UniProtKB/TrEMBL annotation:
GO terms for molecular function: ATP binding; histidine-tRNA ligase activity. It is found in: Cytoplasm. The keyword Ligase applies. It comes from the Bacteria. GO terms for biological process: histidyl-tRNA aminoacylation. L-histidine binds at E95, S96, T97, R126, Q140, E144, R272, Y276, Y277. NCBIfam families: hisS (TIGR00442). Pfam families: HGTP_anticodon, tRNA-synt_His. This is Histidine--tRNA ligase. Belongs to the class-II aminoacyl-tRNA synthetase family. It catalyses: tRNA(His) + L-histidine + ATP = L-histidyl-tRNA(His) + AMP + diphosphate + H(+). The lineage of its organism: Bacteria, Pseudomonadati, Acidobacteriota, Terriglobia, Terriglobales. The keyword Chloroplast does not apply. Coiled coil: none annotated.
Length: 434
């Protein structure tokens, strides 16, 4: 048997899943996606769909050549050479902020006066070590706010959207962690402070962190290595080395979050794993027991230099991405009930087949989720099947019903049935289904 590739999976209708793993039920994904589209509509975001693969250079430049994503996790291949020229290096997208920024430049959205608000829903690919809540193909719901303004109210608005969405999805025990990484000059001062503090103790650092002390000291704060933790804890908070402007930005974001009634904790160690962030960074975790160790549900921040890095004009940006797989994992089962068919049409005897087909069609045209199985079966077996499908009502059509013009509508949940006139059976059903 050929199975799915490591740490990838099928998302299935609940009834067809033999391991009954609710975290892979497709209706739960659809529920969160629908909710997200509704929240994006309210906040004035429009959808963008970018390709699933891009030129590799987009990510090395956009995400940062020293990040884990670029150094270890990308699915990259060289395309076959053909009439389009030399085979070039292509990559399955590991994230979608760089692709959206590329689209912003390519379609000259920067020429517009208005703030551009875009959202996406789709798969991302990272060759990570898989575990509960961590996959090599996973789904993100994300948004980007691009344009001329870096007003801190935009940062707070984006965070408010994420928190509102997660709260309405019923995710328990949410915690919003907030920090600032300042601007380039502030970060340079912070990097100098990290080097000064850690260089004399480099031998105590993990191998990865020792390398990063040379290449990208900020990444040391992301380190999960046990031995690095006391050294990281002793570093000064970045806020202390930032200039007035950066501090004022952060203070204002906090003010707007306070005004919106959104609780948060300031986490001075939060820098996030991508190079493009400036000023505000945030992460949302859930302490729900179902979610396990991979408890980061969403993350994002401001990235004012990214569009320029990718060859566009100076542009302000703020965005976030929410891990759909993890939101589904943390979402209580009752929050997203499985959609059930409303009607199962049963026919008994060959002469009832055509009228039954007509009845199913009428029901579907009226918006009813109606099921029909043309293979002839006994009443008992048909009712068993209707129950198996979880239908709420059954319409019974046999020779006697056709002759009398009184059809039988059965409420399967209550095991009650009534005779209804053939001409008005659908009205009866619509009235009863509520
Ligand atoms: P990032 O793009 O790394 O900032 O991640 C944003 C969110 O995507 C995280 O908070 C996770 O919820 C989710 N995420 C990232 N990587 C994975 C993965 N390998 N599997 C599942 N979800 C992920």
């Amino acid at each position: 048997m050929i199975r799915t590739a490591p740490y990838t999976r099928d998302l299935l209708p609940a009834a067809l899943s033999n391991d009954r793993d609710a975290s892979a039920f497709i209706h739960r994904f659809q529920f969160v996606e629908d909710l997200a589209r509704e929240w994006f509509r309210r906040y004035g975001f429009q959808e963008i769909r970018t390709p699933i693969f891009e030129r590799t250079e987009l990510f090395t430049r956009g995400v940062g050549s020293e990040t884990d994503i670029v150094t270890k996790e990308m699915y990259t291949w060289r395309d076959r050479a053909g009439e389009d020229g030399e085979g070039e290096s292509l990559t399955l997208r590991p994230e979608s902020t760089a692709p959206v920024a590329r689209a912003y430049i390519q379609h000259q959205m920067w020429q517009r006066a208005e703030t551009v608000r875009l959202y996406y829903i789709g798969p991302q690919f990272r060759r990570e070590r898989g575990q509960r809540g961590r996959f090599r193909q996973f789904f993100q719901i994300g948004a980007e706010v691009l344009g001329g303004s870096d007003h801190p109210a935009l940062d707070a608005e984006g965070i408010e959207l994420v928190m509102g969405l997660l709260t309405e999805a019923g995710i328990p025990d949410l915690e919003l962690r907030l920090n600032t990484v300042g601007n380039a000059a502030g970060r340079a001062r912070f990097v100098a402070a990290i080097r000064e503090a850690l260089a004399p103790r480099a031998h105590e650092l993990s191998e990865d962190s020792r390398r990063r002390l040379e290449t990208n000291p900020l990444r040391i704060l992301d380190s999960k290595a046990e031995q690095d933790q006391p050294l990281i804890a002793a570093l000064p908070p970045i806020y202390d080395v930032l200039d007035e402007g950066c501090r004022a930005h952060f203070d204002a974001v906090r003010h707007y979050l306070d005004a919106a009634g959104i609780p948060y904790v300031v986490d001075a160690r939060l820098v996030r794993g991508l190079d493009y962030y400036t000023q505000t960074v945030f992460e949302v975790v859930s302490h729900a027991p179902s979610i396990g160790a991979q408890n980061a549900l969403a993350g994002g921040g401001r990235y004012d230099g990214l569009v320029e890095t990718l060859g566009g004009p100076p542009t302000k940006g703020f965005g976030f991405a929410l891990g759909l797989d993890r939101v589904v994992l943390a979402m209580p089962e009752h929050r997203a009930p499985e959609p059930q068919p409303e009607l199962f049409v049963i026919y008994l005897g060959a002469s009832a087949l055509e009228p039954a087909l007509h009845a199913v069609r009428q029901a579907r045209r009226a918006g009813v989720a109606a099921l029909f199985e043309p293979t002839p079966r006994s009443l008992k077996s048909a009712l068993r099947l209707a129950n198996k499908y979880g239908a709420r009502f059954a319409l019974l059509l046999g020779e006697a019903e056709l002759a009398s013009g009184q059809w039988v509508l059965r409420d399967l949940a209550r095991a009650e049935q009534t005779a209804v006139p053939a001409e008005t059976w659908l009205q009866h059903l619509l009235a009863r289904r509520g």
